[in-house]
Fold this sequence. Notes:
By secondary structure, the chain is an all-alpha fold. It has helices at residues 2-110, 115-156, 158-163.
Amino acid sequence: MVTKLNKSKSSKKASAPLSGSVKDSAQQIWQAGIGAFSKAQAEGTKAIEALIKEGVNMQRKTQSAAEEKLSEASSKMSSMATDISSKASGQWDKLESIFEERVAKALNKLGVPSAKDVNALIDRINDLNKSVQKLSAKGAAAKAAPKKRAAAKKSASAKPAAKRAPSRKPAKPAVAATGD
């Protein structure tokens, strides 16, 4: 038994330097970790600030690129919309003209005059009215001149006209009545 005690005493003596070295190593590791943490904390704020700056720059760049793409897409869409609307209006114009032609044909078959026909008649009526007005103005002037001459002749030949007998019209032959 004595030997056992000696062995444990000798193992205690050998373990003392080992436990001291383990303790020292653990303490050094702990201090290195605390130093790394403090260094990481000090440099981490700097790194975070640098990352924030880079993030802000990247955000500005992506926003400007997105705005460019958005404006480019908007301009393309507006030009496409303009093209489509012009094509659509062209198609509507074609459809409208086809519809008008077919309605005009149907009305023509029914004997309804077209707007051109009515306008031509209005123009012709206006021309005829102008001609009638010119002729009536000339006729009024021509009638006024003979009346003045006739009035002058009447005063000069008033007595012989009174002596003349009125002329008679020939009598109509009598129709014989036939009685059956």
